[in-house]
Amino acid sequence: MARTARIELRAEPEEEERIRLAASLTNRSVTSFVLEAAAERAEQTIAAAATTVIPSDFFDSLHKALDTPPVPNEALVRAARRPRQVKQA
Predict the structure, then answer these.
(1) Cα separation, 70 vs 65, whole angstroms
(2) Domain ranges of the chain
């Protein structure tokens, strides 16, 4: 697939030198090296935004609560016994 979009950036001379050295050490062009690194970081960022991490003890408590039916309180029992009224608009 042909690359048609451009991404331009400015870097400090020291950063540019490090990036060029790293690209050279991996036998890649600077463009290829930077694009792959940015794409990998983008995937990590997207995955982190789509993932919720919670402590295992909280997860265990939540899982147990979801598997245990709730015990209705008195107000809920009374409300369930009331006749239902349906109003159509």
Answers:
(1) 8
(2) 13-81
